[in-house]
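Human: I'm a chemist; would you kindly supply sequence and C-alpha cells for a protein?

Assistant:
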Amino acid sequence: MVREIIGMNQKGGFIMSGSETIKADLHVHSNISDGEHDIEQLIEIAKDEGLDAIGITDHDTMSHLALIPAHAGLRTIAGVEISSIHEDTNTKAHILGYGIQNTEMITALTGPLLEARNANSEKQAGILIKNGFDIDIEKLARADGKYLYKQHILDWLVLTGQTPDMFGSFYRKTFKNGGICDFDIEYINVFEAVRTVKKAGGLAVLAHPGQQRNYHLIPELVKTGLDGLELNHHTHTEKDREVIAGLAGQYGLFLTGGSDFHGKYSSAPCSIGDYLSAESGIRAIL
C-alpha cells in the first residue's frame, strides 16, 4: 500500500499516513573500518531500535558490501565515507557515497589511504612501546582483519589497564595537542572524492559539515557533483541545522542524517537510531 508523507518525527524520520514512520539511520560504521560491531550485530541493534533501514558507511572501503546478508529483516545498504581534504584551506571534509555501482573505482581511490592509515597507526603503536607501554601488535584488533586504527590501540590500552578510558586526558595528551602520536596521513582531495563517487554511479553527500566547519566548500562541491548534505548528526547544533537546510534549499541538495555510530570506538554516547535521515535523503537513496 502506498502511503503519503504527512510530517516529521522528533528524531528526523518521516511519518506516513496510517501512523507508519519510516526510520532510516544512514551513517553507521562496522568493524570493517573503525566500528566496534560486526554487520550482523549492527542489524540486530537496528531491529531492536525499530528501524526500517540502515546505511553502513565504513571509512574508505566497501568491503562490507559482500558481508551484508540477503535477508536481514530490515533494509541494509552499503555506502562509504571517504576521508578527504581541501588542500588550499587545509579543511577536512568527509564524503559519503551511496548507491555505488562500480566499487572498484572506490577501492582504487581509497586503497592507498587504508594502507597509509595502517602504517601510521603501527608507527604510533611503536612509539608507545618505546615509551614504556605494553602493546602486543599481533593481538590488536584490526579493521577488516587488516588495518590498524588508533582506536584499536586505545582499546588495547584500556583493556590492559594502562589508561582508564579511550578518549580522555591520555588521548588528548598523546594523540592530540602536539603529543608523541599527534601525526596523521594525507587525505584524498575532496573534489576527487566527489567525482569518483559520481563516476562510480553513486550519490555524493557531505558528511557532518557543521562538525568540520566546511560550509565554504559547498558551492564548489556542488559544481563537482555533490548531491546532498548530512543534516541530522550528533555534533550539529540547531544553528547548524538551519544553515545546512538553507544551503540545501539554495543548491537543490537532498538532506540525510545518521548516528555516525561506532560503538565503544567513539567519544560520543550515541546509538543507532538516535539520529535519522531526513525525508529527502530517504527518497533519494532508498
